[in-house]
Design a protein that fits this description.
By secondary structure, the chain is an alpha/beta fold. The chain is built from nine helices and six strands; from the N terminus they run βαβαβαβααβααβαα. Helix content is 40%, strand content 16%. The protein has a six-stranded parallel beta sheet, sandwiched between helices. Strand 1, helix 1 and strand 2 form a beta-alpha-beta unit. Helix 2 runs antiparallel to helix 9. It is globular and about 50 Å long. The protein starts with a strand and ends with a helix. 32% of the residues are buried. It catalyses: nicotinate beta-D-ribonucleotide + ATP + H(+) = deamido-NAD(+) + diphosphate. It holds the Pfam family CTP_transf_like. This is Probable nicotinate-nucleotide adenylyltransferase. InterPro entries: Cyt_trans-like, NadD/NMNAT, Rossmann-like_a/b/a_fold.
């Protein structure tokens, strides 16, 4: 039985923090595989800055050489009405029926689930397991204890809370802004992705 983490994000672009986070989570939570899941540009709650094929190509460049890292374009292929994390987790659990599948997310998204912003929150929480990464300004234990849904699902098995230990929060939006204003974010993302962005004149 393998332990698999589903790591969803826009990856617009993928950053060194994404990779470091995935590596840290894999190590601490004893995961055999991390599946990087770029979100669809059809989602109503997100506005992508880059076409899907560019985000996909950069992600492939970023994870090459690491046998634990794979990418999956499942959500990229979905229509907007079908892009819910609940459906996504059902898909991956059907793909890996004999394995343990976890959804990896930041503590800020835990707050969103508690606030009812995701859709299908109750079956999502009660039927799945989560690895939750600390975020500055978010009290993970308080978020769980103050939500009837989260605290009643918290049986010691649903939520694995991880404090990464370093405040590495450089975002994709920061990198996009640097490129857009003529800055130099070279060492904040994989070198191959940096060169790809320059070659295709992205984020200008």
């Amino acid at each position: 039985m393998a332990r698999i983490g589903i790591y969803g994000s826009s990856f617009d672009p993928v950053t060194n923090v994404h990779l470091w986070t995935a590596s840290t989570i894999a190590h601490r939570c004893k995961l055999d595989r991390i599946i990087f899941l770029p979100c669809s540009n059809r989602r109503k709650d997100k506005r992508m800055k880059t076409e899907d094929h560019h985000r996909w190509e950069m992600l492939q460049l970023a994870i090459q050489g690491n046998d634990k890292f794979v990418a999956d374009d499942y959500e990229m292929k979905q229509e907007a009405w079908n892009v819910y994390t609940y459906y996504t987790m059902n898909y991956f659990k059907s793909m890996y029926p004999n394995d343990e599948v976890f959804f990896i997310m930041g503590a800020d998204l835990l707050v969103d689930i508690a606030s009812g912003k995701w859709g299908y929150e109750e079956p999502l929480v009660t039927e799945n397991r989560f690895i939750v990464m600390a975020r500055d300004g978010v009290d993970m234990l308080k978020t769980i204890s103050s939500s009837p849904l989260l605290r009643n699902a918290d049986d010691g098995n649903h939520f694995h809370l991880v404090d990464k230990g370093l405040a590495m929060e450089i975002s994709s939006s920061y990198i996009r802004d640097e490129f857009g204003k003529g800055g130099e974010p070279r060492y904040l993302l994989p070198e191959a992705c940096y060169e790809y962005i320059k070659k295709h004149n992205l984020y200008r």
